[in-house]
Design goal:
The protein is mainly alpha-helical. The protein is 70% helix and 0% strand.
Length: 262
């Protein structure tokens, strides 16, 4: 098996073990164990498929790993939420009004790239494959899956709600777009906070995984990752500390993958 597949396999094994000791409702715990086991079996089975399929499967594992982790959410740790919010206020003042004077085109752009973040995960590998570097699939997915799963795994014990669930709506220059984006988040996500931020960690990991092979495309992805990180807290989808931790996670993993020559 590839290194990236081992990362996915270990993550689903972790979710199953976390479910066993979790305080979540029994139905959620059983469902998590069963689906985690199915996902682990899928990873093993996927390792035997042709490369044309195998190279893309980690994107599916990441998506499954995100939603399954959400089943272990029991109740928000209010003291952790207060700590995260305190840092936001220390760094930003009032986060709901801090960015009200920012240009509409900038804030709207941050909303749009935040909403489209999920496209970066397969998109980064598509750039490598299209440029004749599909052989780098394992390196790419090792970095990206480790970053994403590293952001999702703490959800089993670090349980908080996102800022939008606790604050009044932020005052932004494009309220209609923000309303649309917020509705999308509430409908399509697990509606809880990931620490570190999966958006920040994943998008930065994608950029790092492409940068050394395709410097121009990687630099563009790096700018997008910075924008996604800003959008996370400007538009109140994440706390500042979430974003910093996500960026740190991606940087550490990039160093580890580079050092070990995956």
């Amino acid at each position: 098996m590839r290194v990236s597949e081992w990362v996915a396999l270990l993550y689903f094994a972790y979710l199953a073990l976390a479910a066993i000791v979790s305080r979540a409702p029994v139905a959620n715990r059983v469902r998590t164990v069963v689906i985690a086991a199915i996902c682990a079996a899928a990873v093993r089975g996927g390792a035997t498929t042709p490369s044309s399929i195998r190279n893309w499967l980690p994107a599916v594992y990441i998506l499954a790993g995100y939603y399954v982790a959400g089943w272990l959410f029991v109740a928000p740790a209010e003291h952790l939420e207060a700590w995260l919010m305190a840092w936001d206020r220390r760094l930003l003042g009032d986060p709901t009004t801090r960015f009200r004077a920012w240009p509409r085109v900038l804030v709207s752009g941050l909303e749009v790239i935040y909403m489209g973040c999920f496209l970066l995960v397969p998109g980064g590998f598509a750039l490598l494959a299209a440029s004749g570097h599909a052989d780098l699939a394992d390196r790419y997915w090792t970095l990206v899956t480790a970053a994403e799963f590293g952001a999702f795994a703490p959800l089993s014990f670090f349980q908080t709600r996102p800022p939008w669930a606790l604050e009044r709506k932020p005052v932004l220059t494009d309220p209609a777009l923000h309303e649309f984006a917020t509705n999308m988040v509430q409908t399509m996500t697990i509606r809880v906070n990931t620490f570190p931020s999966g958006h920040a960690a994943g998008s930065l990991a994608v950029a790092f995984a492409v940068l050394s092979t395709l410097p121009i495309a990687g630099s563009a992805l790096l700018l997008l990752a910075v924008g996604i990180g800003l959008g996370c807290f400007v538009c109140r989808y994440h706390y500042v500390v979430d974003v910093i931790a996500g960026a740190a996670l991606a940087i550490v993993l990039w160093g580890a993958v580079s050092a070990f020559g995956v």
